């Protein structure tokens, strides 16, 4: 199977850490060039150095994806550098809310919606326009198992990722005529610095094991491998799909974070008592 990524150029959001950094490294290893974007310039610089390849293969730009002008400028910089955009790995996202719905902070909710949903719109809007101008390409958006399986007390995270999934399908339907493919990936528990506390918790780790048919946590490479396939020529007739990379956890249920959150909110608080 030929991926056909040699000498192509990709935008990777959230490229300074975690899944984004892993996807960017895999793209470069496959012969592509990448522009890393994210909010933390120091992390981006460190990721670029770690990935290697020099400035002809890896560049970075500090970008807040919730600012449309910054997103547009990042896409323009990539075009100025390489002349053509072939695809996007949209890995940026996160959450500012955790806790019972009766205690959600309005500003934190709005910030999570802005990051996960509005940020995705901006990335899609400006990168898809360049993909169309270039004659086609592919975008892969990293969603979450929380989009399909309820994750109690995760606040805005699951609803916004469900919105990302719908945007993927909408964009795929609209852009297919221009040979632009849009797909999404729903990771489960992936071993990154963000989930260290989960992996270190005996209660949470045990709960994930009970609800995951394949008996290990996911690795960044599990997500990167599918991302590269979906960005490649090997997937040229696949669009509008949301694919889980979760060890099968979506067959069962989302995690039980009682052990971590009950000390902060109380047993009554977790059931909505104020």
UniProtKB/TrEMBL annotation:
Coiled coil: none annotated. Residues 8-193 form the Ketoreductase domain. CDD domains: SDR_c. InterPro entries: KR_dom (IPR057326), NAD(P)-bd_dom_sf (IPR036291), SDR_fam (IPR002347). This is SDR family oxidoreductase. PANTHER family: 3-PHENYLPROPIONATE-DIHYDRODIOL_CINNAMIC ACID-DIHYDRODIOL DEHYDROGENASE, DEHYDROGENASE/REDUCTASE (SDR FAMILY) MEMBER 4. Keywords: Oxidoreductase. It comes from the Bacteria. The lineage of its organism: Bacteria, Bacillati, Actinomycetota, Actinomycetes, Mycobacteriales. Belongs to the short-chain dehydrogenases/reductases (SDR) family.
